[in-house]
Amino acid sequence: MVARQRLICRAAELDEGGLGMRFEVELQGQAQAAFVVRHGGRVYGYLNRCGHIPVELDWQPGAFFDHSRLYLLCSTHGALYDPATGACVGGRCNGRGLTPLAVEERAGGVYLMEEDGQGDG
Ligand code: FES
Fold first, then answer.
1. Most buried by CB count within 10 Å: which residue of 5, 48, 56, 68?
2. pLDDT tens digits, residue range 17-31?
3. Closest listed residue to residue 73, CA positions, set 61, 62, 81
4. For residue 25, is it within any domain?
5. Rounded to the nearest whole angstrom, what is the distance from the C-alpha of residue 77 to the centroid of ligand 1?
6. In this structure, is residue 121 part of a structural domain?
7. pLDDT reported for residue 118
8. How many domains, the chain?
9. Do the domain assignments include residue 56?
10. For residue 64, what is the domain's CATH number?
11. 29 class by beta-carbon count within 10 Å (0-12 exposed, 13-18 middle, 19+ buried)
12. What is the dihedral of CA 4, 15, 24, 100, to 10 degrees?
């Protein structure tokens, strides 16, 4: 398989603990909601799907962080996730974390790393 990269957004668009960027990935032939956020100076990407019920996390587009700006929050029932790992750290996710995506920040851009045959190119 060949790794490819797809530009998600400019790196400057992601502030520490601020709004995330929504995008879509194609997995097993289906478009899935996903997002990237900046935390601890790094960029992290996950499927936008809560571990409790598979709904999107953000209550307004890109609003993934809680008030402390340290945790990702599911707006439906308040599950909390560690932005650095996607691990469930509280609430109804009951140990079921987020699904991480391979993202990379480089040369002013944030890229999704895709295997060939995955994604829409
Ligand atoms: S759907 Fe996310 S906590 Fe219930």
1. 48
2. 999 999 999 988 999
3. 81
4. yes
5. 4
6. no
7. 52
8. 1
9. yes
10. 2.102.10.10
11. exposed
12. 70
CA of 56 to the centre of ligand 1 (A): 9
Mutate to test the pocket of ligand 1, among 48, 50, 56, 99 (most ligand atoms within 8 A of CB): 50
Range of the domain at 33: 3-115
Is residue 119 over pLDDT 80?
A: no
C-alpha distance from residue 81 to each of 23, 39, 40, 70, 120 (Å) = 19, 12, 14, 9, 28
Q: Which tokens in the block code for residue 118?
A: 């995955």
Residue range 5-57, pLDDT digits in tens: 999 999 999 999 999 999 999 988 999 999 999 999 999 999 999 999 999 99
Structural domain contains residue 57: yes
Euclidean distance between CA atoms 52 and 13, whole angstroms: 29
Q: Is 118 in the pocket of ligand 1 (CB under 6 A)?
A: no
Distance 92 CA to ligand 1 centre (A): 6
pLDDT at 91 over 60: yes
What is the predicted pLDDT for the residue at 95?
A: 93
Q: Choose among 85, 92, 2, 1: nearest CA to 37.
A: 85
